[in-house]
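Interim report, section 4.2 (structural modelling).
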Amino acid sequence: MPATSAPRVNSLALLILPSALLFALFFFLPIGLMAVMSVLTGNPVVMPNVGFTTKHYARMGNDSYYLEVIWTTIRIGLWTTLAALVIGYPLAHWMARIRSRTGHALLLMAVLAPMLTGIVVRTFAWMTLLSDKGVINQILTSFGLITKPLQLMYNETGIIIGLVHIYVPFMVLTLTGVIGRIDERLEQAAENLGASPWRAFMEVTLPLSLPGILAGSLLVFALAISAYVTPILLGGFQIMTLPILIYQQISANFNVGFAAALGMVLLAISLILVIAYNHMLGLVSGQRGLQ
Amino acid sequence: MTSVAPQSQPHLTAPIDLTAAPALVAKAPPRRLGRTLYLAANIAVLAFLLTPIAIVIVFALNPTPFIQFPPVGVSLRWFEKFFASRDFMHALLFSLEVAAMTTVAATVLGASAALAIARGNLPGSRLIVATMLSPLMLPAILTGLALFQSYVLLDVGRPLWGLVAGHTLVTIPYVVRTTLAVLHNFDVRLEEAAQNLGASPVRTFFEVTLPLVKPGVLAGAIFAFIVSFDQFPVSLFLVAPGSETMPITLFNYLKFDLDGTIGAASVVSILLAFMVVLALDRTVGLRSYVKL
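Predicted structure of the assembly:
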């Protein structure tokens, strides 16, 4: 958009209206209703006199079980983010620096292929790899390396492996964009002045890619704490996270109010992350916001 | 510090030492070793990314009902079982139907919104963009929960339009982003030139703007289709019992069975996604649209 003085709103602006309507009716209104439901004693449609209550939030604060669930969710999110960063950085760096167009296209395909394979499918794949009679255990047993199968899933490790696989592409794509914008000549200058490639990387490239690291980490963390399929299947219904608990409140208990309160907690965490992410990306790309 | 300015040209004319890529190991090793470790680390990551997909394909073709490795033969029995299953076929068709409706809705609404944002001189356009992209980062499970609660409160049941609206909400960001990327990159003077030559704003729009943004809109539409086809958390809350989408049916099947049918179903999904990506790459090129 050219920054000419005082741009006038023109008729094309009207094209925003259908989307605005969709967001108002199917996004803001429902989330507003969720906020209201989280402080009501019951469903106002079927019950004649419902009142204001903070009992749903009090229940969360008073019962250490729910705090434990929230902490488990955050812990899984943190490990997933850390692993995705460690795994994703080298690949992002390669993608940003590779010279051959074909090479770049192949790497991009490799990163996008898992992304375009549904979450349920990928979780199934990890189940076949990690289960007691899964591929990894069968291979290790046939080589005589282990006698009893390793417990690779139905625990947090399994969940984290599955989540990392699902969200590492988001990390790679975010980092590639940022690393690609770092002038390669800065690294060369450092090396010409006698720095080893490792030192040039640590003192030039890594600090300059810090905004990308933060943006990618926030994105992966936000996605990981809201995951449902992977934690439930790779956790074998043993490990409770916030999204699993929310769905359970609806499907098993039909406790809409408590589900809403849990939803508001997840929303609050996510909103903080979204704002931080937007801010980070704003720092990276100047004026273009999230795009 | 003038050279610090971000520059997007990947190909520089300066003499470049190809071995200069940083090694991710402690303490300065000899360059060859560093380079080898760098490549090894990357190949390990690629293996991590691609192995699960390869494994699924192996198991779809594996003849035994249990997971067996190494495989003992090749068979198409699971594909036969998949295509003969009424539940799976129903789910596959329903998913395609929902994805098609979602794609149309998200593309029309998202592309219009992007045009309004880029050309309408709306005040607070940054906030509008952030809002329109927010369903990407806000947990989709919350979108599902909030919509489910609203439908319960309004006593409308679980209608198809309710599901499509939920899917549209989570796919619109892709269309907005790809369309905005194109609108930001193209030369506004082309539109001005058309108008200077006497074209009306409407004619300029249809003959200049629209053809130029088409690749972005198309890319967004394809993303919208794939995301809707794979969508899980929103569907979890909004599908009516008996008419479930493919991911939900797969999920329910996975809870009890782990035989090759699920592998076959996965391969069909993967092939569908790949065909779409190839089409996307052929028609518009991926590179400029996957910035996150």
